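Batch job 17 of 40 flagged for manual review because the log was empty.
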Amino acid sequence: MNRRRTPVLACSVVGAAVVALDGTVLTVAQPALQRDLHADVGQVQWTSTGYLVAVASLLVFAGRLGDRHGHHRVFAAGALGFAAASAGVALAPGIGAVIALRVLQGVCGALLQPATLGMLRTAFPPDRLATPIAVRTAVIGLAAAAGPLVGGALVSAYGWRSVFLLSVPPTLAIGLLALTAGEPRSREREAEDRRAAPGLAALDPVGALLLAVALGLLVHGLVEAARPGGAASGALACAGAAVAGIALARHERRAPHPLLPPELLGSVPVVAGVAALLAASAALFGSLFVATYFLQDVQRLDPLTCALRVLPLALLMVLGAPLCPPLQRRFGPRRTATAGAVLLTLGVLLLSRLDATAGALPIGLCSALLGAGFVTLMVTATSVVVHRAPEAHAGVAGGLQQTAMNVGPALGVAAATLLLTLVPHGGFVPAEGAALPALTAIATLALPAALALPGTARRRTRPEPVPPRPGRRPCVRS
């Protein structure tokens, strides 16, 4: 790895890990935050909802900003803003300030996340992208698994404010590092810049606004639907998202410089990769939501024992990610992703057959299948999305990938919550409920998407030999 790629990989990996860690440690800190600031449950919920809505609504537009103005610059702005917002939350005097700063943190997270993939696309050759993406995925899995443990230790020793101070040093460091790292620009990228309209027109502000409204309402509606008594308001928000989506589709067909480029949306590998990630993340996070209630409310396990039962999931994600690039080279993206989708679906299916007496071994087996399947599908589909997207639209492709990874969990948790409430006695026992069978059906949707991925990895072709000049004999070395 050359000197230019090392800081890019460091920024991408650390940036993605900080965002993953921030999401998991906050869950542990919320009860202490509520007591300290004398807030109600609805206000505390908005510390998460406000962040999710801000992130999901701006990811694609942030990717477009990176394509136009450089991924390093957008990443640096997002990382430094994330550090400042995190420090602000740690010093916030009341719950209103915490919510406002969490929304700002979401805006900065939206700037940061697509750039972590856009920078990799511009720094690494296409046939070498799978390895840095696998490293990034492994670190995300490690950060997500370590989040509850780190958060619990910090909250117990120093209070909830220390959780937000945790992300300040790394985001500050990678933000400054990104400012000093140069961004290579290929001929394709320079040609696209010359063709693009100057100023605001190239960013398609109307399309960006419509997409932000559609995604923001969708995520808000899904989160509301998962809240007790929020089904009506959630359905209304989702209906508003559908109206905004229709308006976006009509606008994009007529826009001279659409936010979602036709060559990107017309790429079967890109669309299939995003669809696979959406279905897989919905199935995984919805299943974990149901499993948590099953282990804690039915089997009466404490949170630490519950975390140990599903530990194989995190271990397989961390250990399995480095194995995905050689599998892709050997078997191709289609077969690798299909195997991952099968393992994930089998894990959800077996989890749905557990009864109230299920022990540690079957739960651990289901967790291992979920982790192995999800990491295989995630690394492969992400590699295809980033690899097959034109370099000039790498940021938008990264934004679409991150949007799927944000909307999918909200969709899975909302579906699980609705089905848990519809079944008598809560349906918390998997074999007696309807939530996990429905999530199994969602997991199977990843199979046709995986089968639509390319059968073989794209390889760089060697340049053809230059023919000898007329009148000259070819030089033959003995």
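Reviewer: the log was empty due to a logging misconfiguration, but the result itself is present. The longest helix spans residues 5-37. Unflagging and moving on to job 18.
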